[in-house]
């Protein structure tokens, strides 16, 4: 019997997208046709890597030590002691997805690594 079905290849195993009524250890012959559909994490929307925001944090953040900041590109949109207030101020300024971060009180950006 010939039957077509869809499957996903995950961690070295083909997983059918529907149950198969086959006995255990049944041999089958597969013919693969790769689908051109995008992967679930792919998006037509470009990724914002936040390069400008990270440059601002490295060069301009010292006066705002101990505060929350909202950034859009290389612009400071809002700052303050409350995350909720800073987020609300950014939204009031028309920025829906700002970079929100809390700056350490000592003015030093946190070290990431070993």
Describe the structure.
The chain is an alpha+beta fold and 114 residues long. The protein has a domain at 51-102. Helix content is 18%, strand content 20%. It has 2 helices and 5 strands. The protein has helices at 51-60, 83-92, and strands at 7-10, 13-16, 68-72, 75-80, 99-102. The strands form 2 sheets. A 3-stranded antiparallel beta sheet has the order 4-3-5. It has a two-stranded antiparallel sheet with strand order 1-2. A hairpin with a 2-residue loop joins strand 1 and strand 2.
The total of helices stands at: 2
* Sheet with most strands: strand arrangement: 4-3-5
User: Largest beta sheet, briefly?
Assistant: 3 strands, antiparallel
Q: What is the radius of gyration?
A: 25 Å
Roughly how much helix do the residues carry, as a percent range? 10-25%
Strand content: 15-25%
Low-confidence stretches: none
Q: What is the terminal separation in angstroms?
A: 58 Å
Instruction: Work out the number of β strands.
Output: 5
Secondary-structure class: alpha+beta
Order of helices and strands: EEHEEHE
Q: Could you say which overall geometry the principal axes of the C-alpha atoms support?
A: rod-shaped
Integer average pLDDT: 85
List key phrases describing it.
alpha+beta, 3-stranded antiparallel beta sheet, two-stranded antiparallel ribbon, 2 helices, 114 residues
């Amino acid at each position: 019997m010939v039957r077509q079905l869809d499957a996903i290849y995950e961690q070295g195993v083909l997983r059918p997208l529907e149950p198969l009524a086959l006995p255990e250890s049944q041999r089958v012959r597969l013919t693969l046709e790769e689908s051109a559909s995008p992967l679930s994490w792919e998006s037509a929307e470009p990724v914002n890597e936040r390069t400008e925001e990270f440059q601002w944090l490295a060069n301009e953040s010292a006066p705002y030590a101990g505060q929350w900041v909202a950034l859009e590109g290389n612009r400071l949109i809002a700052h303050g002691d409350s995350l909720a207030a800073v987020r609300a101020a950014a939204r009031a300024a028309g920025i829906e997805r700002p970079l929100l971060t809390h700056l350490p009180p000592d003015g030093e950006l946190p070290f990431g690594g070993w």
